[in-house]
Amino acid sequence: MLDGRSLTRRRAGARLWLSGLWLGALCLAAIFAPWIAPKDPLAQDLFSGRLPPVWVHGADPGFLLGTDSLGRDVLSRILYGARIALTVAVVAGSVTCLIGATLGLVAGFLRGWVDMVVSRLIDIWMAFPPVLFSILLIAVLGPGLFSIILAIVVIDWTRFARVIRAEAMAQGAMDYVASARVAGRGRIGTMLREILPNVLPTITVLLTLEMGIAVIVEAILSFVNLSISTDFPTWGGMIAEGRTSVHQAWWVLVFPLVTLFLTVLAFSQLGEGLKDRFDPVLR
Q1: What gap in Å lies between CA 150 and CA 128, rounded to an integer?
Q2: Is the distance from CB of 124 to CB of 203 less than 8 angstroms?
Q3: At residue 196, does pLDDT exceed 80?
Q4: How confident is the model at residue 86 (pLDDT cuts 50, 70, 90)?
């Protein structure tokens, strides 16, 4: 009979394996897309438009997941779209985490005027509607990969700052922090060597969740033509195109939509699995 702790660790292991396998495979596919993609994702062939997947009657074996209305290979476009999605996820998520977690950690541990300034800044920032704020930023900066990443960072750093601030305040009231101070360790040393390791599992969860959110945001902006050039394949752009022809070519919509869903789910489960595995309280 498994106790609660063993069951939690087993579930964490399953989450880590499944989500890690999917994200690892997706990363490899994105990196080696120029070599493993069967077709040029931008190549058009109107005579091969809306060909079904290879297992459906009337398919062409050269197009495993079929083609869109312009005869472009769906599989190749998904692989190249993964490069954009993962780039936004890693870069935007990492920068957002670095800024928000640093401000939250400093404010939550040092308290005083530092906490007051950071808290007021968070309140002011969160007063702006995030969707309208992101659209306004991209309208000013212009569509592009840099604009998407900047919009995500500018909007989402407050999520890290609020949560990590609360965690740092809770950890700062623990006895081990007082013991470290009595032993002569400075405030910065206590924050980095005592507080940070104990809030790291929360930071990890937030980071993986933020990566999933970044993938969704990029897909939404691509869906409304506010991402990179419409010529380059993105999952959101493919979903927008497939929506208009779902009754004639369902595969143009379904395959990028399923890929997007599995990627966001994998980021979420990866964070939960890491938290269950490495949380000092659970250990």
Answers
A1: 16
A2: no
A3: yes
A4: very high
Question: pTM for the full model?
Answer: 0.86
DSSP string, the chain: ---HHHHHHHHHHHHHHHHHHHHHHHHHHHHTHHHH-SS-TT---GGGTTPPPTTSTT--TT-TT-B-TT--BHHHHHHHHHHHHHHHHHHHHHHHHHHHHHHHHHHHHH-HHHHHHHHHHHHHHHTS-HHHHHHHHHHHH-SSHHHHHHHHHHHHHHHHHHHHHHHHHHHHTSHHHHHHHHTT--HHHHIIIIIHHHHHHHHHHHHHHHHHHHHHHHHHHHHTT-SS-TTS--HHHHHHHHHHTTTT-HHHHHHHHHHHHHHHHHHHHHHHHHHHHH-TTT-
CATH of residue 255's domain is 1.10.3720.10
Is 31 part of any domain?
A: yes
- Could you tell me if 86 and 276 are in contact, meaning their C-beta atoms sit under 8 angstroms apart? no
Q: Give the chain's domain count.
A: 1
pLDDT band, very low/low/confident/very high, at 55 (cuts 50, 70, 90): confident
Higher pLDDT, 12 or 216: 216
- 120 inside domain: yes
Q: Is residue 205 part of a domain?
A: yes
Q: Which residue segment(s) compose the domain that 48 sits in?
A: 4-278
With CA atoms as reference, report the closest residue to 163 among 110, 200, 217.
Answer: 200
Tokens standing for 193? 């060597």
CA distances from 91 to 48, 98, 156, 157 (A): 37, 11, 13, 13
Rounded average pLDDT over 167-192: 74
Sequence letter at residue 193:
R
Whether residue 283 is contained in a domain is answered as no
